[in-house]
Amino acid sequence: MAQKHMPALSDPIEMEVFTNRLLAVADEIGTSMIRASFSSNIKERKDCSVALFAADGRLIAQASHIPLHLGSLTGAVAKVLETYSVEKIKDGDVFICSDPYAAGGTHTPDISVVTPVFADGRVRYFTANVGHHSDVGGTVPGSIHGGATSIFEEGLRLPVLKLFREGELDEDLLGLIALNSRSPDERWLDIKVQAAANERGARLMRELADTQGADKVDALIEDLFNYTSQRLRNRITEMKDGTASFVSKIESDGVGDAEVRIQANVTVKGDRLSVDFEGTGPQARGALNVVASALNASVYYVVKTLLDPYLLPNSGMFDGIEISAPEGSLLNPRPPAATGARSITCNKVVRALIGAFSQLLPEERAQAAGQDIVPVMVFSGKLRGRDEGYVYVESIGGGAGARALGNGMDGIHVHVTNSSNLPIEPLEIEYDLLVDEYALVEDSSGGGRYRGGMGIARQISAPNGGVTFTVRSDGHREGAPGVNGGTDGREAHLLKNAGTNSVEELSPMVANLVLGRGESVRLETPGGGGFGNPSERDVSELGRDIRDGRLSKTYAEKIYGVSKVAEAMHSL
Questions:
Q1: Of 6, 95, 133, 171, which one is least surrounded by beta carbons within 10 A?
Q2: Domains of the chain, with CATH numbers?
Q3: Predicted TM-score of the model (pTM)
């Protein structure tokens, strides 16, 4: 099908400058939020995202943070507008919310703050940000555990509320939120930082409207939506018409070892793309469920990644996509189903989507599965040398899948999650914990023409005991599958007291485990699957992998054969 012509746009140079100015505003909000925050989860790990919205709730621009947070942000702004009409919003109002069912969130610790931006006497835009708060109450430190059977176990639920009323902070509300957290000072301070960061963005948007004229800015934004919408439709027309399906799964429903199927069905017809999840299993008994806002964000991530990585992240890219999931399923649960561990499921949704899309795209865009989870370790105890408590949350990277054009990356977050690690120095200074090891896992990569990425080992001990540990993970029974003849990556492992006579393999959904003096936990995340037949692996590349400790000689001989390994060793 021939590509359609895009509608007439403003001057291309002017549009490029304008687009980058919008992205700069979003980045400024994010930078301000990260630099000013008090919790390590936002300050160090950057577990936050920001975006700009039009007065009608359409996404204008999102900063380069965490794709899954797009769901929380779009859902929050939509619920603000549903709760308060634009005409009833006053200058100086600021809104706060988090609930997955009542406020468009994805899980309770992700608290969104939304600030209306007035220009020419009326609401023209919204600045919005979301921060993952390390604790909002609930039955475990960190507010999330796989075995939660309802959202009421996952901490404070925030519908759309006014944090500021015409410029006046509601300290009673902020005090209520802080009181429901195991680290109240962090909640109090970080939420105020979120509001301040939004105000910084609001000032920049008002300056933009003042210098260019609010009506001109609105017209340029419409051009931006039209451009993005048509550009995506053009990419869709390059795909083969038809329907393709692929199945992945989560290994546990959170409560037990019951697997839950995820089936992605992708249909292309002309310039329209339909994604449905018929065939997906029932909603989980535990906290692995995914609400619409998180599911939509996962689909948009895959569309942007596979069809046009440089596509502008705004509502224009949503126009040509239809998304649906059966009611009462894992991906469209009925309340009050728990949703805290939704990021594990979302990454497995991405695995299924990539498998389906790959059947409708050229082979050079194919890729093997990566770790495709976001394993999270949570520690709670006393701050070093103080009586004040802490909740430390750490999501761990793993191996990315190999691609048709190269190896998978080692030790990174994959797909819809994109936070940083907490460096060892501030971890050990702030918390009464020690990092025994932080390394890549030898022999975790899947083999092939191109190898998968390596998983990460993170081992943390409690030198003085009295530490409560909770974890959520997946991929402990089966590794990430390779593609086109590539072998699977290594599965995950969670060990208590690794390297001692009392070593014990733990459940990937263990909660409220108390660590005694000197006890440790070690999480080894999955490696990525390989791409292509291992016999096609370049011998010099294989030799470097063995020399650098990525592969042991024994493991390499098992995957690539004795003669090929001998040739590889000779090439060094």
A1: 171
A2: 12-228 (3.30.450), 365-532 (no CATH), 538-572 (no CATH)
A3: 0.95
